[in-house]
């Protein structure tokens, strides 16, 4: 009998990660798209870092940082009673960092491609930055936001290295599907590994298919592409 | 009374250019700012709107201080009662025409002004369309209407008609005048189209490399003083042809091409593309109704 625990855990992790990413990325993207801050390039480089770093490198540093042996981990444990090593919470934080560029890049590009005059026009009509963002800017970059959501969700599902480093393989706590596949293969349970892998494969394909279908229909109706 | 002063270092293709401009306007005036591109015309509007900062500034609108660099006063864009019409219209593509207008309402505003403007600009029939399906002239009227919803103290028009053909231009100039008079606005128009300036404005500023070169009424600025004409029109030279001992100069004025004879002496200062005034003194024009 196949254990569905890893599948649910993966879905839960991906969902929570995506929601957190959406909330933090929108203001971050607004800042990255419009700020004239001198060291913005450095901020952009940091956001993009997970794209080029081997997941094991990021995972290693997070493991070191979260460890109660070290200052940050100790601080969290002493003052908040939170432990991030080998826990689900630790996985969420690692996933957020790891998938950050997948949410930020599409939204930032979407905002940059909008004519600046849209934002300025809303300002001259007396509207705050928040109203301008929610009523004007975001509704005009729906397809970018959707791309960001789906890519971060899918990317979180496909994580392996970071999860392995920070979370290990504790059933119902940190054992996500990608780890489960690895475990089953090392235990020579090819059938189970095959089922997990098959589910992941089909799911990933379906999710990307939906994105492309939806985005094509958006761009057909998108006024800015005319 | 509107007082404007600003000093700003502009970044142009020819390097740094210090802009130093000051002028005053009375309530209800229609001012045009004329000049070559890169002279700083749009920057003046943007500083006035609070969209662009400046090194030194003093902007006072009807006894309200919007900018005072000495006293470190700088009112945010949102708090300035302005109407700004952008060159690219900047209509919100996700909203219908009517929603574009209602978006501009402030808390507690009477919604009646939206319907009034839709009617005044003759765009009621379009109110449920999305702006991207409309023509340039229609978009322009919507942008103009949207800028008025807030009942601004000052209306700023940044070359609003430059993307339109001459016929449409002509019609929209009438709409601009209508709105300017109906709501008793103080209006500043950036334009490099002489006929437009003559038709609309009662004040002109000629801007050259960030400085005011001339200021006054359109006819005092663009007409040479030595001519006291009974009939005159302005236009642009599109062709100069030699015919026997004289030259025939074709001048484009509005939609019409006027051919004028010039001597080789007169032709010296003229070249294709030059803005000219054609005037005639002793002559009796015939006026006929055409529609």
Give an overview in words:
- Chain A is mainly alpha-helical.
- Chain A has a single domain (5-218), classed as Orthogonal Bundle (MetI-like fold).
- Helix content of chain A is 77%, strand content 0%.
- Chain A is built from 11 helices and no strands.
- Chain A starts with a helix and ends in a 5-residue tail after the last helix.
- The mean pLDDT of chain A is 90.
- By secondary structure, chain B is α/β, with parallel strands linked by helices.
- Chain B folds into 2 domains: 2-222, 3-Layer(aba) Sandwich (Rossmann fold); 231-280, OB fold (Dihydrolipoamide Acetyltransferase, E2P), CATH 2.40.50.
- In chain B, 25% of the residues lie in helices and 35% in strands.
- The two termini of chain B are 41 Å apart.
List the topology elements.
The complex is a heterodimer of chains A (226) and B (291).
Chain A: H1 5-34, H2 40-52, H3 55-66, H4 71-80, H5 88-113, H6 116-124, H7 129-137, H8 142-157, H9 161-167, H10 177-186, H11 190-221
Chain B: E1 2-12, E2 15-25, E3 30-35, H1 41-49, E4 56-61, E5 64-68, E6 73-74, E7 82-85, H2 97-103, H3 112-120, H4 136-149, E8 154-158, H5 166-182, E9 186-190, H6 194-200, E10 203-208, E11 211-216, H7 218-222, E12 231-243, E13 246-253, E14 256-262, H8 264-267, E15 275-280
Helix pairs in contact in B: 2-4, 3-4, 4-5
């Amino acid at each position: 009998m196949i254990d569905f625990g890893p599948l649910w855990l993966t879905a839960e992790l991906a969902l929570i990660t995506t929601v957190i990413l959406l909330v933090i990325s929108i203001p971050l993207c607004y800042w990255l798209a419009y700020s004239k801050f001198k060291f913005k390039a450095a901020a952009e480089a940091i956001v993009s870092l997970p794209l080029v770093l081997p997941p094991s490198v990021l995972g290693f540093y997070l493991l070191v940082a979260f460890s109660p042996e070290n200052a940050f981990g100790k601080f969290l444990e002493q003052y908040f009673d939170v432990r991030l090593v080998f826990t689900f919470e630790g996985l969420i934080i690692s996933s957020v960092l790891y998938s950050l560029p997948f949410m930020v890049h599409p939204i930032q590009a979407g905002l940059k491609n909008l004519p600046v005059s849209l934002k300025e026009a809303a300002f001259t009509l007396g509207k705050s930055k928040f109203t301008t963002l929610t009523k004007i800017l975001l509704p005009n970059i729906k397809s970018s936001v959707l791309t960001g959501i789906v890519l971060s969700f899918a990317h979180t599902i496909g994580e392996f290295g970071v999860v392995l480093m920070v979370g290990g393989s504790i059933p119902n706590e940190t054992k996500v599907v990608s780890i489960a596949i690895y475990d089953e293969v090392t235990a020579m349970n090819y059938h189970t590994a095959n089922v997990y892998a098959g589910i992941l494969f089909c799911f990933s394909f379906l999710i990307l298919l939906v994105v492309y279908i939806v985005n094509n229909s958006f761009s057909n109706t998108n006024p800015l592409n005319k | 009374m509107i007082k404007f002063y600003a000093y700003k270092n502009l970044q142009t293709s020819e390097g740094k250019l210090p802009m130093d401009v000051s002028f005053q306007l009375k309530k209800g005036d229609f001012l045009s700012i004329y000049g070559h591109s890169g002279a700083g015309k749009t920057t003046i509007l943007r500083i006035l709107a609070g969209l662009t900062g400046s090194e030194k500034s003093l902007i006072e609108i009807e006894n309200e201080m919007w900018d005072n660099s000495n006293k470190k006063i700088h009112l945010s864009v949102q708090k300035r009662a302005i109407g700004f019409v952008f060159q690219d219209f900047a209509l919100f593509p996700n909203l219908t025409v009517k929603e574009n207008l209602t978006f501009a309402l402030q808390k507690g505003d009477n919604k009646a002004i939206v319907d009034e403007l839709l009617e005044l600009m003759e765009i009621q029939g379009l109110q449920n369309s999305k702006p991207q399906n409309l023509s340039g002239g229609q978009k322009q009227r919507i942008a103009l209407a949207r800028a008025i919803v807030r009942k601004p103290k000052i209306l700023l028009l940044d070359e609003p008609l430059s993307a339109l053909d001459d016929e449409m231009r002509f019609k929209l100039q009438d709409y601009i005048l209508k709105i300017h008079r109906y709501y008793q606005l103080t209006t500043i128009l950036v334009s490099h189209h002489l006929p437009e300036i003559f038709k609309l404005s009662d004040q002109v500023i000629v801007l050259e490399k960030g400085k005011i070169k001339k200021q006054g009424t359109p006819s005092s600025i663009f007409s040479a003083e030595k001519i006291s004409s009974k009939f005159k029109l302005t236009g642009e030279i599109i062709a100069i042809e030699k015919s026997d001992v004289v030259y025939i100069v074709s001048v484009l004025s509005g939609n019409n091409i006027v051919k004028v004879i010039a001597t080789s002496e007169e032709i010296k200062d003229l070249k294709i593309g030059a803005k000219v005034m054609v005037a005639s003194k002793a002559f009796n024009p015939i006026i006929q109704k055409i529609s």
